[in-house]
Design goal:
mainly alpha, Actin-binding Protein, T-fimbrin, domain 1, two-stranded parallel sheet, 65% helix, elongated, Kinetochore_Ndc80, mitosis, centromere, cell cycle, Ndc80_CH
Length: 645
């Protein structure tokens, strides 16, 4: 683990045998003396040309959105105070030989755009002054609205310097220089898109009618940029690279980069203290990733335990005989017994049913015959009484009996017809019941469909007064009153047809809109692919430039090695010449002067080659950084455009 992490920091031997990083050697490197080279390791990430500024409270040094323009983009660690400083005397801490380099801001293509803000509108100016006043007062800057309404040159400069330093505390502002010389370069440094429209003559009288709108727009733009910076710093986004905000479990590549940068920083600090074993940084990084993997490790152990248990159960099942054969035999026997019992039960059920029916029929017949017997007995007694009372002749009795039989047969016929009519009525009632059930199911289906289609009252205009609900009244005697609600033919059916036609038209319009959006998405996808191809081509160019810078650096190092060897040889020759001069007298003074002159020429050549190499590397690195910023800006614009659509 330690060896792998050490391999992440490339190192190589310089011409004097010291271990150094892969960062290019600056032009101002000095050859260490033999006495100090064995005890002092020189850092190649030393101080920049600017003086260190104190970081604002509760602000991470890596959070600055606008780095100072004289910071070398090759080494971002030079922005930290007291890291990599060259010691004034030989001490136990490694010194730095890196002097930094100036990176000039180049205007982007957006600086040629025209300012579309209504700067000369009174209401817009009032709004801008109010925004500026609110932000300055909330930031602790003492100012009033009267000062903004009639501003002086010194007040304008104070506000401008305050906003610039809030954006970038490391921006080099010279209070002793003329404000006209500092104004436009500072705006270009913060990428003000309309810096080319600013005239330095306006600063002499900033409150004048022709200059104040543009200068007020500058302040308002800086205030909005400060607000954006504050919102970004308070957003907690992973790109802020704050190690303390990284959660215990993370998968974001930016979180991994933040931990890697923190490890490099700690290891580099330890390395500057003459310690080559990065024990504490390695331990911190291992503990952090162990904490990240702790939950996954616990889940893995739990799954492993469950797997072991399942394997043990599987081995037991494999070692024992399969119980399915015995269970299958028992199942077959039980099924056969079940079939037999089912047949027996069916037979007994049939017998039981027949016996119950027979008993019920016999009981009914017995009751019916008993009732009939009693009726006939009563009728006989009644008739006997009537006959005795009336003193009828036998002929009359025979005639009356004949009439009674005829009436009895007629009564039996009527009873049979009534029974047939009753059966017909029962059949019709069953049919009516079935049809009523079908009608209720159809109405339930209709109501469910209406509910799912949101057709219950209130309906959308112009059908807000129509009620599409239907209820079945099966007890109604009139067929027209079976359904309670609006008329189906005159109201419900035309309304449903109109709603269906409206839905079809809406669906057609939505489908056309979807096709239009799909076409726009296809166009955006094509544009993204074109941008990706352009980015790939530019990355190839960047790779070529990196290879050229590496070749220049290697060539410069080789020439530096050759020049160092030549300088060492000349030193030996010079020492030998001095010894010979002491031995042979003043006759060799001219030779000594010639050797010294050659030595100075070689040293100047070495310095010149180193300066040219550093300038070339800085130039290429600056071009790469500018290219990355331009690509990032284009991608952000494309993303904003896609999100806006």
């Amino acid at each position: 683990m330690d060896a792998r992490r050490k391999s992440m920091m490339p190192a190589a031997a310089d011409p004097y045998g010291n271990i150094r990083s892969g960062i290019p050697v600056p032009a101002t490197i000095k050859k260490p003396t033999p006495a100090s080279s064995s005890h002092l390791r020189m850092s190649l990430a030393g101080p920049a040309l600017r003086a260190p500024y104190p970081a604002p409270p509760s602000t991470n040094p890596r959070q600055s959105m606008m780095r100072s323009q004289n910071v070398n983009p090759i080494l971002q660690s030079t922005s930290k105070p007291n890291y990599g400083r060259t010691p004034l005397s030989n001490s136990t801490r490694r010194g730095s030989m890196w002097t930094g380099g100036a990176v000039l801001s180049q205007p982007s293509s957006s600086q040629t755009a025209k300012d579309t803000r209504p700067l000369r509108d009174r209401q817009y100016q009032t709004k801008m002054r109010q925004d500026i006043l609110s932000y300055l007062q909330s930031s602790g800057f003492d100012i009033s609205m009267a000062t903004l309404a009639n501003i002086q040159g010194k007040d304008y400069r104070a506000i401008f310097d305050f906003l610039i330093l809030n954006l970038d505390p490391f921006h080099p502002l010279n209070q002793n220089a003329r404000f006209e010389d500092e104004f436009v370069p500072a705006l270009k440094a913060v990428r003000y898109p309309f810096a080319h429209q600013i005239d330095n003559k306006w600063l002499a009288a900033p409150a004048s009618m022709h200059s104040w709108p543009s200068l007020l727009g500058v302040l308002h733009w800086l205030v909005e940029l400060n607000k954006m910076k504050t919102d970004y710093l308070c957003s907690g986004h992973p790109s802020l690279q704050i190690v303390s905000d990284i959660p215990d479990e993370f998968d974001d590549p930016l979180d991994h980069k933040a931990l890697a940068f923190n490890y490099y920083e700690e290891a580099y600090t330890v390395w500057l203290d003459l310690i080559d074993d990065f024990v504490e940084p390695n331990q911190n990084l291992e503990e952090r990733y162990a904490k990240k993997n702790e939950q996954v490790q616990m889940e893995l152990e739990e799954q492993s335990n469950r797997l072991d248990q399942a394997k043990s159960v599987l081995s037991k099942l494999k070692s024992s005989s399969a119980p399915i054969t015995k269970l299958q035999n028992e199942n077959m026997l039980l099924k056969a017994d079940s079939e037999k019992f089912q047949k027996i039960l069916q037979q007994y059920e049939g017998r039981k049913k027949k016996l119950i029916d027979t008993i019920a029929y016999e009981k009914a017949e017995l009751q019916r015959e008993g009732a009939r017997l009693e009726q006939l007995t009563a009728e006989q007694e009644r008739l006997s009484g009537i006959v005795k009372a009336q003193n009828l002749t036998p002929e009359e009795v025979i005639r009356m009996n004949t009439d009674h039989e005829i009436l009895s047969r007629t009564l039996e016929d009527l009873k049979q017809k009534i029974s047939e009519t009753h059966q017909i009525v029962m059949t019709l009632e069953v049919k009516v019941t079935n049809r009523v059930a079908g009608a209720e199911e159809a109405l339930d289906l209709y109501n469910n469909l209406s509910s799912s289609l949101e057709l219950f009252p209130p309906l959308p205009p112009p059908w807000q007064d129509v009620d599409l609900t239907l209820d079945l009244n099966s007890a109604a005697s009139n067929p027209q009153q079976l359904l309670s609600g609006a008329d189906i033919r005159k109201v419900i059916k035309p309304t449903l047809s109109a709603i269906a036609e409206s839905k079809r038209s809406n669906r057609a319009s939505i489908e056309s809109e979807r096709i239009k959006i799909d076409n726009e998405l296809d166009q955006l996808t094509l544009e993204c692919e074109n941008v990706d191809e352009e980015i790939a081509e530019v990355e190839k160019k960047v790779g070529g430039l990196n290879e050229q810078s590496d070749d220049l650096r290697d060539a410069a190092q080789q020439e530096a090695l050759v020049a160092s060897g030549e300088a060492a040889r000349l030193e030996r020759d010079l020492a030998h010449a001095r010894t010979a001069a002491l031995a042979n007298g003043m006759g060799v003074k001219s030779r000594l002067q010639a050797l010294q002159f050659n030595y100075r020429e070689q040293m100047e050549k070495v310095s010149r080659l180193k300066e040219e190499t550093v300038r070339a590397i800085i130039k290429n690195s600056h071009e790469i950084a500018m290219f990355k910023e331009e690509v990032s800006r284009h991608l952000q614009e494309l993303r904003d455009f896609a999100e806006a659509d």
